[in-house]
Amino acid sequence: MKSTKRITAFVLIILGISFLVFSVVIYYWPEQPKEDNAIVQADVLAFCDPIGSRYGPIQIEPSQFYIAIPKLGVKDLIYEGVDRATLNKGVGHYPGTAWPEEGGNMVLAGHSARTTEHTDPFGRIDELDEGDVILIVDNFGIEYRYIVKSQTVVASTDMSAIEPTQESTITLISCLKPDYPRDKRVITTGIEE
What we know:
This protein has 193 residues and is α+β, with helices and mostly antiparallel strands. It is built from 4 helices and 8 strands; from the N terminus they run αααββαββββββ. Strands 1-2-3-4-7-8-6-5 form an 8-stranded mixed β-barrel. Strand 7 (169-175) and strand 8 form a beta hairpin. Residues 32-61 have low confidence and may be disordered.
């Protein structure tokens, strides 16, 4: 009888210690990532994206938007900022300018020449004509459609392109092709349809 009580007490102590250890491990063990958020968003985008079938899937992670220019075959992520490191990754959004859902002037910049350091999302921007389409799409598949209205060449010091506008517009800024002067910029503007 004494040994049965001892065995029962021993088993209960072991169970108690096991429960305590299990609770501590569950509480303090680092949570394993369930699924990469960018991949989930890319799956949602591939499903919702009305132009995804034409240009292939794109992984959304830096911002909630990407740019697509069907005429040029461009589909690129939009990153916040226009510093060299940001533009080396893709298209940059000028801080302080509008986003599509806000209305106003959304200003984007991108390289026009591919190097070993960066891509050239606006490499063929000079081929855009009045009436061409520029799309901004968020990771839920909501599409903002802009129609190109003008394209001009300005001095690199001319910052009038980033000024706010009353209507919902998009402004794309890029250097001229490598064989053109570095002190000039191509400014492409569009109005939301």
